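Example 277.
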Amino acid sequence: MLLLSALGELPKLDFAIFADTGWEPARVYSHLDRVEREIADPAGIPILRVSAGNIRKDALGPAHRFASMPLHILNRDGSPGMSRRQCTGEYKIKPIKRQVRGLLGYPYPSRIPRDVHVEQWIGISTDEFHRAKDSDVRYARNRFPLLELGMSRDDCLSLLAEHGLQSTPKSSCLGCPFHGNAQWRQIRDETPEEWADVVEFDAQIRAGNARANADGRPLLGQAYLHRSRVPLGEAPIDRLTRREQLALDEQQAAEEAEFGPEDGYSPYSCRSGDPVA
Ligand code: SF4
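Predicted structure in complex with iron/sulfur cluster:
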């Protein structure tokens, strides 16, 4: 949306807001800096970075009131569960609302007149249209420009690629329990220091929320980041989902169409021409 606005395909934004949980992958922060430098600044669109603290530190600090992450729980009787997700509201929605009220000139707790509101754009594409909802506050009216333009996720990726932004990373907390195996593998294989960080965090949250434990409300079970409810370092993250397997099959078929069938795996049979006997 920022790019479309900078290109003049959408009206010019007054501001863009990035809600920082303090625990995004390094590549997200460097991408944000780049987008600010190359797109937002030249277009005169300020990027406001807002934050309610560092979600990783808060999760491990017994003194901190912590909005829980959606951890995978293994109950004492062996049944699976999940802790309630409060983190999005606490670390993303709340600081954005605070910033919006500030921009309107009515910081909390001042009353905002009925006729004062912002138009708030949310980047939901056609693949996830069911996530588009009205705002729950009167001072923000939600709009979904990508839906209005009929843009899918692939359309967005093509547009980004056309403008040299094909490396746009996914924004989410490094240790988000919603990660699929592909995201865990990417962290493990591409940024080993971030992998060590999430594996350590996973071990530290096994007994649940540090504050709740300090308050004498221990978790009656064990908490995990990976949905297999196995310590992250040992979790079966190399297992492919059906969708990944299908994509792999398609890729293999496309390669065979272009380069011929696979010759085999001996060192002398590289795929380069006729099969080697
Ligand atoms: S990315 Fe995951 S852990 Fe981070 S705020 Fe969102 S749901 Fe919570």
